[in-house]
Amino acid sequence: MLVLQSAVNGILGYIGLFFVTRFIGATAYGYLAFGMGFAGTLFFMNDLGFSQAHIRNISSGASFREANETFLAIKLLLGGIFVIVVISALLIWTDILHKGFQNPVEFDVILALIPYYFFQNMLGFSNAFYTARLHSARMSFPGLVEATFRNSTFIIIGALAHFHVISVGEALGGLILSIIYSVSYTLYFTVSYLIGRPWNIGRPRLTLLRSYMAFALPLAVSSSLSTVNGNIDKVIVQFFWHADATGAFYASQRIVTIITTMSSSLYIFFLPLFVRMLGSREDFDTSVQEYERIVSLFALPIVVAFIVMHLYITNLFTAAYDSYSEMLMFLSANAYIAAVTMPYSSALTAENKTWVVGRISIYAVIVNIALNLLLVPPSIFGFRAISLGATGASVSLLSATLFSSFLYRYRVWRDKGIGYPKGITVQAVPVAAQAAFLYICSRVLHPYDILILAPVLAASVIIYLGFAVLLRQITIGQIFMFIRMVNPKRIVSGMREER
């Protein structure tokens, strides 16, 4: 069901992104991207590892009522702190330091995004509970509602602007986009909270709060730095370049989101399942490798398509981003490496080795920020040889992810003796076949037109799956089972079963 949500959200997201970048404007999208980066960087107190503590607590059989009332209080406190931090930062930047932004509208965009981040924080309350209880349908439905509302609104406004029914300038467009995001996430949390009733919320328990803090403390620094790590690159790109470059970077991130979300759909229940497997060493060790193999199998055809056809896919949304299309290659590879590393970080968290996760995250953040400051600026003390421009942000992120992936794997191998799964090596054959087909098509057909590109991409996935079946990485029966799993009717029936 979560895979269905990811697929539908991905399709709707692509359509919405097309209407935004084509008809509302690439620069307007850049203003939104900078606002996301600025506010997102200050979103460092979003979770602090408390969601992992909550999931682990409920998965271990704790009282739902006591756990939920304590966790809700934590999320409200963190959300309130975020609002204060953002408003204070803006006031200090503009009124005390007397600094400004590239465009004055960026100040308003950041303010308009505050509800978006506040309710994104609050979503952690309901989603953590659904994750611990393995309630995939209840996690899926609110996300579908949000994506449908947000992207439908993008399409309507984009169409009205295209046919000159309304006039949307670059500045106004960026502000409108930020407001839509905030409204959609308010709706997202409202629906997610309502379908989980009754919550039976009472007074927070101080003893449980101390327990959560003991578990979350090692993750707090890494969680905060990871949030900064995922947003500061957009701020750096905007500082050294301009809104179009920032928009191109964020658009590429949105394009590869389908890799992240579909992989996360398979990963989301790793932690509660690993907690329940701790008593069985053999099951635990086998599951880590098998989860990695499955995530890799489903992610690779999308990753290969994005890497080989990066120019044509970027051009579908707007020709203004053609010169930045290489970002899509590096961000796709980054999404894949991050996805196949998830089982290893979850395995460490399940064994309460949160301090290891925290330390590795800190190293990765340092690497990413340092490389951003080296590769993104036009020059460093007049030296231009290593500057990659805005593309440097994607190279930096990929490098940091590769570094952290190596550290996670090494630690799990050292502690558990779990090595690299041989099953993934076999997947190189279908990858090579798909990549060769796409490369030939790109050289012969030059598929800028969606009517040519779509069949080519579909055929490449069929080729990939064909080789995967021949190599016994997956069976035809499993493919059809996967197709049946993404039946929308399963969400409704699933929510009934989860009561």
Automatic annotation (TrEMBL):
Signal peptide residues on this chain, from the entry's feature table: none
Protein name listed in UniProt: O-antigen/teichoic acid export membrane protein
Keywords: Cell membrane, Membrane, Transmembrane, Transmembrane helix
Residue spans crossing the bilayer: 7-25, 31-50, 71-93, 113-132, 144-165, 171-195, 207-225, 255-275, 295-321, 327-344, 356-375, 381-403, 424-445, 451-471
Cellular component aspect of the GO annotation: plasma membrane
Subcellular location as annotated: Cell membrane
Organism: Thermogymnomonas acidicola
Membrane topology: Multi-pass membrane protein
InterPro entries (alphabetical): Poly_Biosynth_Transport (IPR050833), Polysacc_synth (IPR002797)
Superkingdom, taxonomy of origin: Archaea
